[in-house]
UniProtKB/TrEMBL annotation:
The gene is purC. Residues 4-215 form the SAICAR synthetase/ADE2 N-terminal domain. InterPro entries: SAICAR_synt/ADE2_N, SAICAR_synthetase. Belongs to the SAICAR synthetase family. This is Phosphoribosylaminoimidazole-succinocarboxamide synthase.
Length: 228
């Protein structure tokens, strides 16, 4: 097993058969000891956060597999906090696709002159560059195309998949009386055909979910969703 990438919340290894192994760590994003799914620094360590994030990730990726959505998911081992995935080539040095249902987080920080906090948004998609140094700037379709990061067709696919997947997650949460405010997804090109597929994870660490108007922390979200 060869370590190929040490991320903020997961380490990536290459297996002998060419697949990748993601090791979920107990590190979570945030600042000064306060968890924030929108942050791009490790803010704190919470015991059990890795396994908890993997449980939710496994749960959601298996739902997506049943729905025929292309993802990198192969299987998960909760005890070891590991997930086996198909290797993906990311776009440029990595992109994030955000789907927003309510105005919070960086959307509100940027557009607060016009947007009200918590204002409903209709599955509004934003693409951001994974660039910690420049604080993950949002990028337009034209810029992605011009800079050779995504073709126009790939952009369309990415946007459609983002909305489709986010709506599935939103429905799953709604079944438990939980409202999804926003979610951050990652995509890559997978296999010989470079099919665009969902990669990375789907857990409380990359979404904002609320119940009765109150934000739900990642570990609590996992317990609420997997309780039944
Ligand atoms: N199937 C995959 N193929 C290649 N890289 C992947 C795959 N799934 C996730 N990754 C990458 O694994 C890295 C580690 O995850 P993470 O700790 O969340 O990193 P980050 O610090 O970038 O958030 C990320 O760069 C992510 O893009
Ligand atoms: Mg990450």
């Amino acid at each position: 097993m060869k370590l190929i990438n040490k991320g903020k919340t997961k380490d990536v290894y290459e297996l002998e058969d060419g697949n990748y192994l993601l090791k979920f760590k107990d590190d979570v994003t945030g600042e000064d000891g306060v968890f924030d799914p929108g942050a791009n620094t490790v803010g704190l360590t919470i015991e059990g956060a890795g396994k908890s994030g993997l449980k939710l990730t496994k749960y959601f990726f298996e739902i997506l597999r049943e729905r025929g959505i292309p993802t990198h998911y192969i299987g998960a081992n909760i005890e070891e906090a590991t997930m086996i995935v198909k290797p993906a080539k990311v776009f440029g040095n990595g992109l994030e696709a955000i789907c927003r249902y309510r105005a919070v987080g960086s959307f509100l920080r940027r557009y607060g002159m016009y947007a009200k906090e918590g204002q409903p948004l209709d599955a509004f998609v934003e693409i951001t560059l994974k660039d910690d140094e420049r604080k993950d700037p949002p990028i337009t379709e034209d810029a992605l195309h011009m800079l050779g990061i995504l073709s126009r067709e790939e952009y369309r696919t990415l946007k459609e998949l983002t909305i489709k997947i986010s709506n599935i997650i939103k429905e799953e949460l709604a079944k438990r009386g939980i409202e999804l405010y926003d979610i951050k997804l990652e995509f890559g090109r997978v296999g010989e055909n470079n099919e665009i597929a969902l990669i990375d994870e789907i857990s409380g660490g990359n979404m904002r979910a609320y119940k009765d108007g109150k934000y739900i922390e990642p570990l609590k979200l996992e317990r609420l969703i997997l309780a039944d």
